[in-house]
Amino acid sequence: MRREVPLAIAFISGLIMIFSFFIPHETFQTLNNSFRNAVIIASAFAVVLGIGNLVQVNVRRISMKSEDSGYRVVLLVGLVVMALAGFIWRDYNVTTNLFGWMFNYMYVPMQATMFSMLAFFIASAAFRAFRMRNLEAGLLLVSATIVMLGQVPIGKWLSDTMFLKIFDPQITDWIMNKPNVAAKRAILIGAAFGGIAQALRILVGIDRSYLGNE
User: Fold this and answer.
1) Total-model pTM
2) Which helix H or strand E contains 59, and what residues bound it?
3) Which of 128, 155, 173, 191 could cysteine-pair with 149, CB 3.0–4.6 Å?
4) DSSP assignment, residue 103?
5) How do the domains of the chain map onto residue ranges?
């Protein structure tokens, strides 16, 4: 029963969601909305469990006096302060209360700092990827150079004054709108087929990894 009941729930829920998409009947739409609300409620409980696990793991590591205990203390303090601010000032204007102030003037700048640091890692990864070891890497290097220079003023300057028409912004637009879009659509179609195959595996009970011990 520990396996049969979850499998039956997954099978019935999946069929109802599929039927509600193809059959515009009020019954299926009502069931669809009910399942969506159930998913939202389950997600809320999952957030609570995640917070509990976060607190448990970090408190244990702090008690063990690990090297990064200071960061873990800051994490827990920030979690508690943000939660209290959200609960206490929930009826006030979110853009002017303490919660909004901490979000706009503490969280957002720190997030921007983290993303700006990632730019250096992206540049390093791009340098390693752009080594022309084969034909594919060479095409990547050439197209990336054309696109990057075509989107900055120096590309237009090279196109106008140095007669390097390959850096013309119109060529960049063509690469972005034609080959790039075609490749993105191919990837999205492949990912969609993969998602459909995975959903069918779960629906018919072939993939049971979500049960935990399969």
Assistant:
1) 0.59
2) helix 26-63
3) 155
4) I
5) 1-88
Task: Identify the DSSP state of 165.
Answer: G
Angstrom CA distances, 184 to 69, 91, 188, 210, stand at 43, 44, 6, 30
Work out the angle between the directed axes of helices 135-150 and 153-161 (0-180°, nearest 10).
90
- Is-contact 67 61, C-beta < 8 A? no
Whether the CB-CB separation of 29 and 20 falls below 8 Å is answered with yes
- Residue 174, burial from CB neighbour count under 10 angstroms (0-12, 13-18, 19+): middle
Alpha-carbon distance of 110 to 117, in angstroms, equals 11
CB atoms within 10 A of CB 61: 15
Q: Residue 40 has what pLDDT?
A: 92
Compute the Cα dihedral for 181, 183, 185, 191 and give only its sign: negative
Say how far residue 186 (Cα) sits from the centre of its chain. 20
